[in-house]
Amino acid sequence: MQALTKIDSSRQREILEILLHHGWDFMRQILTIGKAVGGDAAAENRVDVPPPEILRSILVDLGPVYVKLGQLLSTRPDLLPLEYIEALSELQSNVPPIDWREIETILIEQLSQPPSEIFSQIDIVPVAAGSIAQTHRAILKDGRIVAIKVQRPGIDRLVTRDIAMIKQIAKLLSGTDFGKRYDLVALAAEFSTALQSELDFTQEARYTEALRQNLLAGKWFDTAKIMVPEIDRRLSTQKVLVLQWLDGVPILAARLTGKNHGGDIQQERQALTVLCFRAFFQQYLVDGLFHADPHPGNLFYLDDGRVAVLDCGMMGRLDPRTQSALVEMILAIVNGDAQRCAQITLQLAEPMGELNLSRLEWDYDRLLHKYNNISLQNMNASEAFAEILQAARRNNLRWPSNIGLFAKSLANLEGVGRQFNPEVNLFEEVRPLMNDMFQRQLFGDDPLQSLLRTGLELKNLSLQSPRQLGFLLDRFSSETLKLNITIQSLDGIQNSIDDAANRRSFSTVVGSLIVGAAIVSANAQTPQLQLLSNVLFGAASILGLWLIVKIIRSGNLL
User: Fold this and answer.
1) According to the model, what pLDDT value does residue 102 have?
2) Closest by alpha carbon to 216, among 203, 229, 206?
3) Cα 399 from Cα 380, distance rounded (Å)
4) What is the pTM of this model?
5) Residue limits of the ABC1 atypical kinase-like domain (predicted)?
């Protein structure tokens, strides 16, 4: 425990030094908030975020875990302004490779046999080194060439330490306006879950196999032209992933010859672009499981002319309801229908404060008008969708995290597509699929099954409706039906009415006491009746004075 405390203290000093080095007083604000008791609440709640470039530099200096944090935040255009998303998207884990002896130790611990009995050759110089793992080329005893992805030694302890610190900071800021607006505690928990899952290579293996099977069943593209590497589950563990080796280069570095298109390089480029777009739109709108990080390094052009999708460590999911809403959202953006965009937003997003629907529609209308005079060929679809997310965020709506992942994946895909083929346009590539999309939304993969299910639901509705109507009429006739209606701001009106009624009652009582005292005084023939008259006058005077004071204090004298 003492060792952990020393590590934490050392890490805290390191973080503070990095923040001070970049001239950012964020830690000072955190410490001020943490120590504040009373004082200016508004000042305590003000927490400024550094400019995008400085934030990116801070995360790089803080180390691999914080680089991962920045990479995950770059997938959340629903939370951060676009300039931050762009800056964080450039984060790369440029870390030095681990010495081979340490990597070999992990292999010996994780594999069921010594590496020398499984591999006939392993290149000790890694082909890639990242913040979580590094990859080596190897040859199995049966002659197959594979890639070995090995987790960096001690990364699990480093992740646990830094995640705990991130959660502490999030909890410390949870009471500020900044913390509430972004729900930092929930965001830290979400980041923790995502990063922990990246440390489990068995999950990445399941995702890789699922994506591979989905693409093999594709209907919108030639399944022989795109692939995902096979996983050797026999050799893969939680910290070691063994997968098929693929010879190729990142797609932006591809040297096309056009040999399969009569020597027309542009035609080949267009065909590859259509292939990638349709493969990913199948993931988004049909399969529901999609690759969330299709940057240029994860799309490979292979020596045999195929395209490979690599690195399934970051994946997203979309349920059928969300898929249907996204199809409608894309159509609404194309048609400039701000009202429909607002309706779909309310189906998906969660209100985090007071919502002004008219202002949301106005923001969407102003945003979509920007694209009115732009042809589909020149329209940036992912940028338009990201701005829709931003407008909703400004109107106190929080999108689910899977929508942020979808927006990020779409932006990466379109960005690679435009670099690879500047003439490409996402909407033009989606248009031929629209009829099929709507047909799938209406009837699903099996129209007969969908028709039978709809018929069954109509039958259940027809059986239940008369009973529910009869029950409702019975409640009306027996006068046992109670309607609970809540009208906003009605409580204030009711309180005002109650106050007025109370004052009127007191006035009546005071007037009655005065009249009674006058009657008794006029007929007072004994000292006892004269005393009673005086008591009544005194009570009336006290109550009357008290009532006048209450009216003056309420500010409603006139």
Assistant:
1) 93
2) 229
3) 21
4) 0.70
5) 91-344
